[in-house]
Amino acid sequence: MKALLVxxxxxTLLNDAxxxxxxxxxxxxMLGDKGILRAIATGRSVYSVNRVLPSDFxxxxxxxxxxxxxxxWKSKKIFREASLGADEVEYICTYLFSLDxxxxxxxxxxxxxxxxxxxxNGDNPDFLRRIRxxxxxxxxxxxxxxxxxxxxxxxxxxxxxxxxxxxxxxxTLKDMNVVMTTSPLDGRSFWVEIFPKGVSKAAxxxxxxxxxxxxxxxxxxxxxxxNDLQLLTWAxxxxxxxxxxxxxxxxxxxxxxxxxxxxxxxxxxxxxxRAPERAGHEEA
Length: 284
Description:
Elements: E1 4-7, H1 9-13, H2 22-33, E2 37-41, H3 46-50, E3 61-64, E4 69-72, E5 77-81, H4 86-99, E6 102-106, E7 115-118, H5 125-133, E8 138-140, E9 153-158, H6 165-172, E10 177-182, E11 190-195, H7 201-211, E12 219-223, H8 229-234, E13 237-241, H9 246-249, E14 254-255, H10 262-283
Parallel strand pairs: 1-2, 1-12, 2-3, 7-8, 12-13, 13-14
Antiparallel strand pairs: 3-4, 4-5, 6-7, 6-9, 9-11, 10-11
């Protein structure tokens, strides 16, 4: 069966303890035994992924930084990367300065765990926590200072009460791909991520599928947050874990939470309903 399974990482494959359960690990190995390609599509950088997954983790592809890069997992070869050019970076910086928001500008792939940050004098604990997590790789960006000539992405950290700015930013920067995700650090703040046009988890997954001649009707995806919407919509079969926001669960079949092996339940449902059909088609 030529097929592709794509899963989000945080809040989907990983439980709240940031580990992969034995059941989910067994499911990934089972998919490999069946010859089904396995890909993780995550907002994490390669550096961040390596902090939670061993190098021999049973997947075939890593779609990282929400699609800004794609990697062959076994060889660790990056075969797709995208970045914002100097003019785009300068324009976005100037615009975000005017909004008076806290944001980060990430270096190009594969060093995109390094970033410059601009901080306003407001209360934003989630922003400060992210700086502490990556402290050795950060440097301050002064208002009106020289922005970098190239960047993988921007991350704007909004306290919950400023979530409304997402729509404004997305409308103003309509020539880029602007996505929102719930903060993986505090679970309450919102991160607005700004990528080059055409960069998304869905685009990364499509690149993997085309590499192997896998048709869309043989693709399934599992996710939990706003930055998974494009991926879940693109895939023929999409599942939302029960810890996803209500507006996402209304659009896709719901499986148990990330703490109750929702990934495995979704895969089992997909194989039960799709695999026999395709296997019979290929044998005919």
